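S.,

Sequence below, as promised.
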Amino acid sequence: MKYLTALLLLPFFIDAQTVRISILESSGLNSAPAIHSGAFGTFKNKWYFIGGRQNGLHGFTTPSAFPTNGINDIIYITDPANNQMWSASTSTLPDNIREAITSSNMQFHLSDSTLYMVGGYGWKDAIQNFITWPTLTAIDMNGLMNAVINNQSIAPYFRQIEDSSLAICGAHLQKLDSVYYLVFGHRFDGYYDRTDTSGFHIQRYSHEIRKFQIEDDGTSLSLKNYSAIQDSANFRRRDYNLIPQIFPNGKEGFTAFSGVFRKGIDLPYLDCIDITDTGYQIRSTFNQTLSQYHSAVCALYDSSTGAMHNLFFGGMGMYYRDTTTGLTVIDSQVPFVRTISAVTRNAANQLQEYDLNISFPALLGTNAYFLPDFQAPLYKEQYINYSLLQNHQRVGYIIGGIESPELNINSTDPSLSFATARVFEVFIEKDTVSAIRPVKNEVINFICYPNPASNFVNVEFELVKASKVSIELVSTEGKVLSEIVNKNYTTGKQKLLADISGLPRGVFACVLRTQGQKIVIRLEKQ
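The prediction came back faster than expected:
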């Protein structure tokens, strides 16, 4: 067994500190299902997995996208201490409950012993079509787990109501005090197709943070005190990561990291949004470059310094480091990546991203699950308390998700990807200190579109400080095909139009250089 190790160094933060992690693929723990995109969590020293999918990437054209034989219609309960797993079919449940909880990309939250599941995209047999479920399903986890383990009926432990405001998928459901937050996401009804002109579906982004309370006396369910915050410019996001945060003033909330897609541009967001009970803040001067899609994540809070570490394990990213050249490559197709990264918030509320300089042994992490170790010390129940960790202490496991044989499997054959049952153990290392460089972003929001293109490409970027900028189009052999610009720019946003009509068809690179940075976007001419 081989450890993958790396250091997270915070050299210029007010509360300078290091976080070092190692990852080990577990050779003995095999009681985990090969699924992704479902509801999951820990309860009474066991893991649970409900819904999601058993195949790989969903596909992009009707009628092959989201094949019904990929639906996960089995509930799994795992005891990691004894490497034991139990399962139960959902076939005995009423159709509306069964179909809603076996959807994918639903929202969920465990409150005491009740798991609430909201929305999700899935098949409705009665209409022979896909819908986003307008449902809230309450699951008695004490009763469900005992029934699954003892091979008893699971039907008594489910209740459900319908409410159109809950018809959301690709979002997150979190709770602050007694208020639930249904953050961003979209409603997608009909057969999935990546084009908006297929006529097989209707898609509507929520553009909202929806807030409500759940009244639940154990028999009846209802929503109350519903309200919504809308921002059509910044909330058009789905399939992102929402991570609980403790902010420097001690206030709790969440941060929404990245997500897809920007309006009018088939590219992900790079900024993040801090959310509290009093509103939200767009962190527009920060770019998260290494992770843009839903993945396994871990929240570490250092109660001694106030630093908040957010770890991202693989997934999909528009930026990745070329291991041969060491350069940062930008791929607008947002490929599967092996990258393991972090975004740390210090006591001054500054955000910094780090490439942890280690990677998965394969393209893993998309829609995977991070489950905390039961022995890891917690802060306020949902944060791993970094200050109380021992050296080489296991903090959790990365389970399931999509494994892909290629970076851009979406453009070749998505069916070659698959749901994985691989399990990785995550450790914190405290004894060894060695420096790595944080991700530097003199240039943020660097994009080229459309991509692929025919005659012209829009090139946009934003400078954190004034700098001389050169932009070249370079062949795969390293030959400079065209110089777009070479001049001094002031701080702020810049936009150029590059004429590529004279270039041959094929793949080339748009290389941007400043005095301290070089980044590359992979472009394709049709």
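The chain has two domains: 4-429, 443-525.

Coffee later?
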